[in-house]
Write a structure and sequence with these properties.
This protein has 93 residues and is α+β, with helices and mostly antiparallel strands. It is 31% helix and 33% strand. The longest helix has 21 residues, at 71-91.
Length: 93
């Protein structure tokens, strides 16, 4: 069976069967591939992050539980806002 979007088949299947908030990863050398189930399946490939899960400081509205995300997702959300804004400003010129 062929890998989907570069994600190993066993990892993709493991992610699809997961419940919300669960993650799975594989590492080969410096490359880490991780899938995390939120509302949808989130796929990540990184050479600088590990697979740790961190608290976001927010609580889920339904269950009042602390929300946890992979560190790679937290970093992406933190720094991509500036990149998107810079790209938007550059498009005006």
């Amino acid at each position: 069976m062929k890998a989907n979007r570069g994600i190993p088949c066993d990892l993709e299947g493991e992610g699809k069967c997961s419940k919300r908030g669960q993650s799975a990863f594989r590492r080969k050398g410096d490359v880490m591939v991780q899938v995390w189930k939120d509302k949808r399946l989130v796929r990540m490939i990184s050479t600088i992050h590990d697979a740790k899960i961190v608290n976001t400081g927010r609580k889920d509205g339904k269950t009042n539980m602390e929300m946890k995300k992979p560190y790679a997702v937290v970093q992406y959300n933190k720094f991509m806002k500036g990149i998107d804004r810079a790209d938007q400003y550059l498009s005006y010129y």
